[in-house]
Design a protein that fits this description.
The protein has five helices and 15 strands. It has helices at about 10-25, 70, 100-120, 130-135, 140-150, and strands at about 45-50, 55-60, 80, 90-95, 120-125, 125-130, 160-165, 170-175, 180, 185-195, 200-205, 205-210, 215-225, 235-240, 245-250. The structure holds zinc ion (ZN) (4 copies).
């Protein structure tokens, strides 16, 4: 059994890097100083496959849809096969839950703020400037510091991702095959046919050819049960919008997590 670790992520280094860049307005970096990198944490993780509960296989027990008595002798089928949802891998890479992420990011931002306030620094937008340098800054510079730090995207609040609206963040949708019942495709075919009977009645070994001719019609329903070709027994398919990733890159900020109008 695989274990699924939720890696702890932090946006603190990202918030600090933005602050470092904003403070270059106050005191420019020394020549040859390393460039500030605004790397955001990787927001992907390995999730348990929802179709096979991380078994890698799906086991299907055929139930009676009306076909067993009618067409089959012997017991119902039992199918065990590779999970089509994860391709037998038991897991898949998805985005983190954007709502949980938002809580985490808000917590990291509070930590960032608390650290700088504790040093007696002065907030300029989302940036913090040392008390001693603050007095010397004019309005234009203050505005520039604010802009350099930037502000959270109103839609995704720094994360750069948003929950998939098609699957409500589940990553899967119900099997689209209307005939799919629990991973089996059940199709009913009713055929009606008529037959002419020329009253052949066997009577004491001889054939009575003068018997009456009659027609009768019958209806026959055949139930065919086979592994559903759409989901291959998984009962679900990957969400066609997020492709199973549960979330998508925020459309408002193109995944940058920040308001774009300042830049
Ligand atoms: Zn699976
Ligand atoms: Zn956004
Ligand atoms: Zn299906
Ligand atoms: Zn989706």
């Amino acid at each position: 059994m695989m274990s699924f670790l939720l890696f702890a992520i932090s946006f603190l280094p990202f918030f600090e890097a933005r602050n470092t860049a904003a403070n270059y307005i106050v005191s420019p970096p020394e020549e040859g100083a390393a460039e500030v990198r605004f790397e955001r944490p990787v927001l992907e993780l390995v999730s348990k496959c929802p179709a096979c509960e991380a078994e890698g296989v799906v086991v299907l027990e055929e139930t009676d849809f009306g076909q067993i008595n009618a067409t089959r002798l012997g017991k119902a089928k039992r199918i065990r096969q590779k999970c089509s949802f994860c391709g037998g891998k038991k897991s898949l890479v998805t985005f983190m839950n954007p709502n949980e992420l938002e809580v985490q990011i808000a917590r990291d931002f509070e930590k960032y703020k608390a650290t700088h306030l504790a040093k007696g620094e002065i907030p300029v937008g989302n940036a913090f400037v040392p008390n001693a340098s603050y007095e010397a800054l004019d309005r234009k510079k203050l505005k520039l510091i604010e802009k350099t730090y930037g502000d959270a995207c109103r839609s995704c609040h720094w994360s750069g991702i948003e929950e998939c609206g098609k699957c409500d963040g589940r990553g899967y949708v119900k099997c689209p095959n209307g005939d799919c019942k629990g991973g089996w495709a059940v199709t009913k075919n009713t055929t009606s046919y008529s037959k002419t009977s020329s009253g052949g009645i066997r009577n004491h070994g001889s054939y009575n050819s003068s018997g009456s001719t009659r027609r009768y019609s019958r209806k026959e329903t055949k139930v065919t049960v086979q592994l559903c070709p759409d989901c291959e027994g998984a009962k679900m398919i990957r969400c066609p919008k997020c492709l199973g990733r549960k979330a998508e890159v925020c459309k408002k900020c193109n995944g940058l997590g920040m308001k774009q109008k300042n830049f």
